[in-house]
Amino acid sequence: MMVWGAPKQAWRKGPWTHEEDKLLAEYVTFHGEGRWSSVARSTGLNRSGKSCRLRWVNYLRPGLKRGHITPQEEGIIVELHALWGNKWSTIAKYLPGRTDNEIKNYWRTHFMKKERSAQRQQKRKALKLKQQPPQTNKEETAAVRDGGGATDHEGGMCEEAATLLDDYLMNEGLWWNQQQQANNIAMQMQQVACNCYGGDVISNEYNGVGYIF
């Protein structure tokens, strides 16, 4: 059976030795950062370019801080994570000496556990609220029940107001004045009709309309 393509090199994995760290540090000091793919050819290290980069950035780079994250650094991590989320490389720029990998591990170790615990507590509270029977407000129920006859009551008030208005018009003579004005108009129309036709006009006392005979 034929195998096409060159077989991948079996890079060494596992912890770095002191000799490997020394070779990598000498290479970066002389050639600078960024040429990780050529480290193996130039130094004889049996490590991949990615492994060399991570070893340098996280452990061998000058200026790295050692020890635990301080409370001040923790506050910065919390504030910047609220702005940018899991952009660890961006957050690391504001924490000199701390690597993005170190910040990520610190966040997952200290804060994700607290966040998950808070979420579980909220779910428990929501489940308890769903299991409780709904409570009815007696005052609201009584208000709804009493409000059912509001329409009939308002209708009675409207009829009563109309009756009072008619009584007022009758007492004040306003209704009589309106009726008198209508009768006057009818009499004027009768006179005009007499002048035009020369006939006699008999008034209909029921509605004030005249007929010519």
TrEMBL record:
Its main location: nucleus. Residues 118-153 are annotated as: Disordered. InterPro entries: EOBI/EOBII-like_plant, Homeodomain-like_sf, Myb_dom, SANT/Myb. SUPFAM superfamilies: Homeodomain-like. Keywords: DNA-binding, Nucleus, Repeat, Transcription, Transcription regulation. SMART domains: SANT (SM00717). This is Uncharacterized protein.
